[in-house]
């Protein structure tokens, strides 16, 4: 399913000229701010009906003792 959706997304992507983007770093900012910046950066390169319908964000947290 992931392969099919990825192929559809690439074919339906409304962004033809994909700009270079930089990695989003937290630098001590709240997760909500980082998430909003990361989503805007993602949408600069990815804009399709597949991304609109199935796109989203996940947050992972690793804690070492």
The ordered string of helix (H) and strand (E) elements is HHH
From the N-terminal CA to the C-terminal CA, the straight-line distance is 37 Å
Give the uncertain stretches in residue-range form.
none
Structural class: mainly alpha
User: What's the story with the biggest beta sheet?
Assistant: none
Radius of gyration: 14 Å
Oligomer: single chain
Compute the number of structural domains.
Answer: 1
The tally of beta strands, per DSSP, is 0
Give the rounded overall mean pLDDT: 91
Helix coverage percent of residues?
40-55%
What overall geometry do the principal axes of the alpha carbons give? globular
Report the β-strand fraction as a percent range. under 5%
Number of helices, where a helix is a run of at least 4 consecutive DSSP H or I residues: 3
Written account of the structure:
- The chain has one domain.
- The N and C termini lie far apart (37 Å).
- The chain has three helices and no strands.
- The protein is mainly α and 65 residues long.
- The chain is 49% helix and 0% strand.
- The mean pLDDT is 91.
């Amino acid at each position: 399913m992931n392969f099919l959706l990825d192929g559809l997304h690439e074919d339906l992507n409304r962004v033809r000229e994909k700009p270079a983007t930089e990695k989003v770093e937290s630098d001590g900012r709240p997760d909500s701010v980082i998430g909003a910046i990361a989503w805007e950066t993602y949408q600069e390169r990815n804009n399709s009906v597949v991304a609109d319908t199935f796109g989203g964000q996940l947050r992972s947290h690793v804690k070492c003792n």
